[in-house]
């Protein structure tokens, strides 16, 4: 069983090829810029959008078979060019048992699975997934431990340790670095992240410039969004930071 | 590119006077008192082609304009013209007079003298057949008028030399090309294009609005290749010349205020079935993009072995917001045409006329079509049978049997009605001698394109309306009436008549039933049935020319008008709302994402729809970004592999995004895709929508 927030088809920003992204509910981090606030709590939530007379419910427990049946509908599209399924969230690794079961079922069907994680979970969770994931999208938000602890509210040690072990085990890992104004968008911040990733043996870095598309969800949920009035970084700024990363990694700007 | 922009500005200047082809025809008719009916008709055309003083735009490189047909005729002449028009009526769309793709391949290969020589040979073959000789003579008159037109344009270019605003180099180019193709077959790309464009401008001068240019990347390719080898031309120069011609497609706005529907087809396969995409295909694509008008309807035939680069180039142009080319599944279209027994080489050479109608260029009379509206017959069964005899349909199968019987009657009525409308009583007074010069077998047989001259008889298209509305209605009837047994058909009919007033909960249940476009068999099976059953019906019928009745699902905006005049339907649709559009599911009812929609849409057997179908899909501009476009291409490949027939993709323009901010109810399924995130555009707060809007503006630059 997995606590599923929603299943989104034709996802083209969540890994190679055409993918279906299964968003899981529940997260143990509280990044103030998060664009999926509906996936933070493990409890079901209903968001209503009175302007268009629509309500959307997030959070339903689904059997592995049920998820497999649904995602396998798009198998022809995955086959076209290295597509597959992405587990995202929330933090999918908070549901390691269900995730591993789904991963196994997909492996039996030869459908690649990508895990989109922030990595702040016990190593045992990743251990269960050994050999089952095609690739990890692994969030590295800052190299500054105090900042991590202060803003996100968790200890970064676990994140860095898990990253090193995944790479040591030969897993394919893309470090995903969100570029957040007022958080890590300075050259020293980026240089710190570069150092961390280089030490861990990372080869691929995906940069995710901040956007505030999630702000509507906050408003609907009656929550305050600290980043409501923050503008996305300009393309030139993103390009400037990308240059810092390009010296050491293969960089993609999402 | 700059030249094209300048030309577009010149074209946009309103013309003085009224578009008056009938005045010129009248002059021709009146001056040919002693001629036969055929020749008199030809002389009407000849006066129209060669009579008016040629017009050149300052930025013209390829000449041929309809502006000279705009005049201020005297009242007497106008009245007189009406009388003559009654004696020699024109064939309109319903009478196989428009929507034709001429045989430009032969025209370019043989040139004017070659075509005239063919007529000479035919005259010998038919030396004992006076009507054929008479008709051949009428064809010759129109070709000679074309020659005169070319000569006059060459003279005009010479005369304009030194006039302010005109470039001597452009004038020299036009003079030489026009003079050359007046005398001999084209030897260069520029000459070939000039000949084709001058022929096209003759048709447009007649008032025809949907004459296709067809497979221009094929019939001009040998000349392009030769020029390229000789170093006379490069791709940029060819593109510029094409754009110079295509920009003038916008001239039609001058007479109608609307856009022209000149279909241009690129890609596909050659006569041997091999990939036909070439460098010129890309030039045509670029030229249409440079012109950036809704006028040229560009169609791309995507075959399984069409290069990825070609599909990607098409998507790139679509992503500029142009919405063209429409992408055609070559494999399915050819399989559909093959069913009618055409020669394989002819099938492989198909193109489109009008919006998407499959057509064998220069081998059959112009296209006609009409609208067949199956949902009306469903209403009929419910109101006239089920409401009166409650036991008429105790099961869904019995209900379907009633519906099928009614559809069968309806199809026969439709074809009889269309045949009555399209038949002409005295075809001799409505000949098309000029068009016949560009249609296979007309010269050899000495006969008019609409009087047995064309290689194949005319094809008529029955545009099937509302596949989504019908499928959803049947799925709702099956579930709510026959499975859940919540109401009877009689009660359903009653609720529909009341437009669900007082039956809101019933409407909710009907709306909750399965809907076409969600990759669920419960509704999709009715779409499969719809295509199969209706195509079977029309397969058995013949049009007024003894030719086939193709089916189509491509009825433009007719779904809005048809819906406006229709009561509530069992799918939960309220009275007056639009029907589902073309071959698409009902708008907003396909809620499981684009892949599910395309899986549903590839279920019906479109090799039964020889005319063609239209599926519209909108994507936000970010999907067309360099890094994502490949995935869009794969989406289309899979859809085509599974038997989808057509897809017309729109990149959501700034205007649409702006409109969606103000009218969110019109855009329920506009998705914004960002890594790890997705949302419906209309759910986003205004300031975030503005972010996206700015981004779109940026991307469009």
Q: Your description of this structure?
A:
The complex is a heterodimer of chains A (254) and B (701). With 254 residues, chain A is an alpha/beta fold. Chain A has a single domain (2-253), classed as Alpha-Beta Barrel (TIM Barrel). Helices cover 34% and strands 24% of the residues of chain A. Chain A is built from 9 helices and 11 strands. In chain A, strands 5-1-2-6-7-8-9-10-11 form a 9-stranded mixed beta sheet. Chain A has a two-stranded antiparallel ribbon with strand order 3-4. Chain A is globular. Chain A starts with a strand and ends with a strand. The mean pLDDT of chain A is 94. By secondary structure, chain B is an alpha/beta fold. Among the domains of chain B are: 9-91 and 101-211, no CATH class; 372-585, no CATH class; 652-701, no CATH class. In chain B, 52% of the residues lie in helices and 9% in strands. Chain B is built from 30 helices and 15 strands. In chain B, the strands form 5 sheets. A 5-stranded mixed beta sheet of chain B has the order 3-4-5-13-12. A 4-stranded parallel beta sheet of chain B has the order 8-9-10-11, covered by helices on one side. In chain B, helix 13 (279-291) links the parallel strand 3 (262-267) and strand 4 (296-302). In chain B, helix 1 packs parallel to helix 11 (235-247), helix 3 packs parallel to helix 6 (130-159) and helix 17 packs across helix 23 (489-497). Classes of the chains: A alpha/beta (254), B alpha/beta (701). Chains A and B meet through strand 1, helix 2 and helix 8 of A and helix 27, helix 28, strand 14, strand 15 and helix 30 of B.
């Amino acid at each position: 069983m997995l606590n599923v927030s929603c299943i989104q088809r034709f996802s083209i920003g969540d890994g190679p090829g055409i993918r279906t992204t299964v968003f899981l509910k529940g997260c143990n981090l509280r990044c103030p810029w998060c664009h999926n606030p509906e996936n933070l709590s493990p409890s079901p939530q209903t968001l209503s959008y009175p302007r268009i007379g629509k309500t959307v419910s997030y959070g339903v427990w689904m059997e592995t078979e049920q998820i497999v049946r649904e995602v396998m509908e798009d198998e022809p599209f995955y086959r076209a060019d290295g597509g597959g399924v992405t587990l995202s969230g929330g933090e999918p690794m908070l549901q390691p048992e269900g995730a591993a079961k789904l991963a196994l079922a997909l492996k039996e069907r030869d459908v690649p699975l990508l895990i989109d994680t922030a990595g702040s979970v016990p190593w045992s969770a990743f251990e269960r997934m050994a050999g089952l994931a095609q690739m990890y999208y692994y969030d590295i938000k800052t190299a500054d431990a105090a900042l991590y602890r202060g803003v996100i509210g968790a200890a970064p040690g676990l994140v860095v340790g898990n990253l090193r072990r995944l790479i040591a085990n030969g897993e394919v890992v893309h470090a995903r670095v969100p570029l957040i104004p007022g958080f890590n968008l300075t050259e020293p911040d980026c240089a710190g992240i570069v150092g961390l990733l280089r030490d861990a043996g990372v080869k691929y870095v995906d940069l995710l410039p901040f956007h505030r598309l999630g702000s509507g969800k906050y408003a609907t949920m009656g929550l305050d969004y600290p980043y409501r009035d923050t503008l996305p970084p300009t393309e030139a700024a993103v390009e400037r930071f990308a240059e810092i990363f390009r010296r050491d990694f293969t960089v993609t700007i999402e | 590119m700059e030249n094209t922009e300048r030309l577009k500005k010149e074209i946009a200047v309103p013309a003085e006077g009224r578009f008056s082809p009938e005045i010129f025809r009248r002059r021709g008719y009146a001056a040919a008192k002693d001629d036969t009916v055929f020749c008199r008709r030809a002389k009407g055309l000849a006066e129209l082609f060669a009579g008016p003083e040629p017009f050149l735009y300052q930025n013209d490189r390829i000449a041929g304009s309809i502006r000279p047909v705009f005049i201020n005729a005297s009242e007497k002449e106008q009245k007189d013209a009406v009388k003559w028009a009654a004696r020699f009526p024109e064939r309109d769309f319903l009478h196989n007079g428009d929507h034709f793709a001429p045989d430009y391949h032969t025209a370019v290969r043989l040139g004017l003298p070659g075509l005239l020589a063919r007529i000479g040979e035919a005259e010998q073959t038919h030396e004992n057949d006076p009507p054929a000789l008479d008709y051949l003579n009428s064809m010759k008159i129109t070709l000679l008028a074309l020659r005169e037109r070319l000569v006059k344009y060459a003279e005009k270019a010479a005369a304009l030399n030194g006039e302010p605003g005109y470039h001597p180099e452009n004038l020299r180019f036009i003079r030489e090309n026009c003079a050359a193709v007046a005398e001999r077959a084209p030897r260069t790309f520029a000459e070939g294009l000039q000949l084709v464009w001058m022929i096209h401008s003759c048709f447009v001068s007649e008032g025809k609005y949907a004459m296709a240019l067809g497979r221009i990347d094929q019939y001009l390719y040998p000349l392009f290749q030769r020029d390229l080898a000789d170093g006379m031309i490069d791709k940029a120069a060819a593109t510029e010349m094409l754009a110079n011609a295509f920009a003038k497609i916008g001239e039609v706005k001058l007479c109608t205020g609307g856009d022209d529907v000149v279909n241009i087809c690129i890609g596909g396969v050659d006569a041997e079935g091999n990939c036909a995409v070439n460098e010129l295909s890309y030039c045509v694509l670029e030229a249409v993009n440079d012109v950036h008008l809704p006028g040229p309807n560009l169609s791309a035939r995507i075959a399984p072995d069409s290069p990825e680069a070609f599909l990607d180039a098409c998507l790139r142009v679509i992503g500029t917001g142009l919405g063209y080319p429409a992408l055609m599944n070559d494999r399915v279209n050819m399989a559909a045409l093959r069913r009618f027994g055409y020669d394989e080489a002819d099938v492989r050479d198909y193109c489109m006329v009008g919006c998407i109608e499959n057509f064998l260029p220069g081998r059959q009379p112009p296209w006609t079509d009409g609208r067949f509206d199956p949902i009306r017959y469903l209403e009929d069964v419910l109101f006239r049978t089920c409401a009166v005899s409650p036991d008429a349909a105790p099961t869904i199968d019995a209900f379907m049997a009633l519906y099928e019987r009614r559809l069968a009657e309806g199809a026969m009525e439709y074809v009889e009605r269309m045949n009555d409308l399209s038949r002409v009583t005295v075809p001799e007074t409505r000949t098309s001698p000029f068009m016949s010069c560009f249609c296979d077998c007309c010269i050899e047989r000495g006969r008019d394109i609409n009087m047995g001259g064309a290689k194949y008889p005319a094809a008529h298209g029955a545009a099937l309306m509302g596949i989504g509305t019908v499928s959803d209605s049947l799925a709702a009837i099956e579930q709510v009436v026959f499975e859940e047994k919540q109401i009877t058909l009689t009660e359903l009919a009653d609720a529909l008549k009341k437009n669900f007033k007082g039956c809101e909960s019933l409407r909710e249940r009907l709306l909750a039933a399965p809907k076409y476009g969600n990759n669920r068999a419960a509704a999709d099976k009715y779409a499969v049935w719809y295509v199969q059953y209706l195509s079977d019906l029309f397969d058995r019928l013949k049009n007024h020319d003894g030719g086939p009745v193709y089916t189509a699902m491509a009825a433009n905006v007719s779904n809005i008008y048809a819906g406006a005049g229709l009561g509530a339907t069992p799918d939960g649709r309220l009275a007056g709302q639009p029907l589902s559009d073309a071959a698409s599911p009902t708008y907003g009812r396909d809620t499981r994402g684009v892949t599910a929609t395309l899986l549903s849409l590839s279920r019906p057997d479109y090799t039964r729809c020889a005319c063609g179908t239209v599926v519209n899909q909108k994507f936000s501009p970010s999907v067309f970004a360099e890094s994502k476009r490949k995935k869009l291409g794969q989406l289309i490949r899979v859809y085509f592999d599974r038997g989808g027939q057509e897809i017309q993709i729109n990149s959501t323009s700034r205007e649409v995004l702006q409109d969606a901010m103000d009218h969110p109810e019109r855009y329920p399924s506009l998705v914004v895709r960002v890594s790890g995130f997705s949302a419906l555009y209309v759910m986003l707060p205004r300031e975030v929508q503005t972010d996206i809007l700015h981004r779109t503006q940026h991307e469009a630059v």
